[in-house]
UniProtKB/TrEMBL annotation:
SUPFAM superfamilies: alpha/beta-Hydrolases. Coiled coil: none annotated. This is Alpha/beta hydrolase. PANTHER family: AB HYDROLASE SUPERFAMILY PROTEIN C4A8.06C (PTHR48081), ALPHA_BETA HYDROLASE FOLD-3 DOMAIN-CONTAINING PROTEIN-RELATED (PTHR48081:SF8). Keywords: Hydrolase. The keyword Hydrolase applies. Gene3D superfamilies: alpha/beta hydrolase (3.40.50.1820). Residues 138-359 form the Alpha/beta hydrolase fold-3 domain. One of its GO terms (molecular function) is hydrolase activity. Pfam families: Abhydrolase_3.
């Protein structure tokens, strides 16, 4: 990238309501056994193979990122220091979004003392039909590549989820790598499942209607939390809702998740699409090292794509969201197929023209609100 780099532009969407209405029309729903596949088009055109206009506007493309990655590798080898971490932490969690709950959600901060230290917790309460009404509860894990961000970046996302799902949403700040590598974040998540399940009545939630949700690395930890809960024979998690999860941190790429340019429909915007995909893919190399360390990266508690058929068959009802030009799309969709093949109900959403992390832009990208609307309908039906 040299002296030039990726720069997000200010977000403005003057056609937000019109775009949101079009998202309900521009879709195709297909079924394959227990898999429901919802393919969403662009809100302003029937054309395919191109970026959403807002994504395109936000990306400033100049050079192939490979030379920068090469320089980073040389620094790491020479100085035993990874500058990627500092660069990433400065950039992550700066996405613009806005509150679309119209004041219908309250927020309360708490702290939980665990065996491993003090944990910050935030609880979102939607309006109820009557005082004391027990609602489902969603445990939400923020993204950030396992190494950055905080639960402050998802405040408006969680407000929207609480409002649309009619559920209590609980978030928390889990341990970040490399200061605290795997399994620290998973351990924190399991502690939160214990706490939410045991204490749900204190915040008027039904522990038997517990769902886990997350975005990106948070979705990965959510998936591995579900796996561990199954392996322990508890099965307390009744739904998992995964927004573009990282499902494979290993170098092993089985055929169903083998990455290839041929799997992406690119008719326009070739340079920015290539830049986005290459940059993300190269970043995954460092994220894997920083998070997993010397652990076996094919362990399903690190890379959930490697779950066995028995564990997959015990999964709860699942919703999984992908973006067309997300580097992770291929492995995410393979994970959805793997679970559905074991007779588990799975809904898979793919949004055309978008890249990784689009739900973070709630209130600006119509697709962000649209996918929460779609998930909310299915969430309530399943509970």
């Amino acid at each position: 990238m040299g002296e030039k780099h990726f720069t997000p532009a200010p977000l403005v969407n003057e056609r937000y309501d019109e775009d949101l209405a079009m998202m309900r029309i521009r879709q195709r729903v297909m079924y394959d056994g227990r898999l429901e596949f919802v393919l969403k088009g662009l809100p302003d055109t029937k054309k395919t193979g191109r970026l959403d206009r807002h994504v395109l506007k936000s990306i400033k493309i100049h050079k192939d990122p490979a030379p920068l990655i090469h320089r980073l590798d040389n620094i790491i080898k020479r100085e035993h220091f990874n500058p990627f971490l500092a660069i990433y932490r400065q950039a992550v969690g700066t996405t613009q979004n806005r509150d679309i709950s119209q004041g219908r959600v309250t927020m309360q901060n708490q702290q939980l003392q665990t065996t491993f230290g003090l944990m910050n917790i935030r609880i979102y309460q939607p309006q109820r039909d009557y005082p004391g009404q027990l609602l489902p509860v969603v445990l939400y894990l923020h993204g950030g590549g396992f190494i950055g961000s905080t639960f402050n970046t998802i405040i408006n996302t969680c407000r929207a989820i609480a409002d649309k799902f009619q559920a209590v949403v609980v978030t928390f700040e889990y341990s970040l790598a490399p200061e605290k590598k795997f399994p620290a974040a998973l351990r924190d998540s399991l502690a939160m499942v214990d706490w939410v399940y045991d204490q749900a009545s204190r915040f008027y939630a039904d522990p038997e209607k517990l769902a886990i949700m997350g975005d990106s690395s948070g979705a990965s930890i959510a998936a591995t939390t579900t796996i561990f809960d199954i392996e322990q024979g508890k099965r307390r998690i009744k739904q998992q809702l995964l927004l573009y999860p990282i499902t494979n941190l290993s170098a092993d790429k089985p055929e169903e998740i083998a990455w290839s340019w041929d799997k992406y429909d690119i008719k326009a915007n070739k340079d920015p699409i290539h830049f986005v995909l290459k940059t993300f893919g190269m970043g995954m190399h460092y994220i894997s090292q920083l998070y997993a360390g010397d652990y076996n990266r094919k362990d399903p508690l690190i890379s959930p794509i490697f779950i066995d058929a028995k564990t997959a068959s015990l999964m709860p009802a699942t919703m999984l969201v992908t973006a067309e030009y997300d580097f992770l799309r291929i492995e995410c969709e393979a994970y959805a197929q793997k679970i559905a093949s074991q007779n588990v109900p799975v809904t898979l959403f793919r949004y055309r023209g978008l890249d990784h992390g689009f739900v973070d832009k709630v209130g600006y990208f119509s697709q962000s609100e649209d996918v929460l609307n779609e998930m909310a309908v299915r969430f309530r039906q399943r509970f």
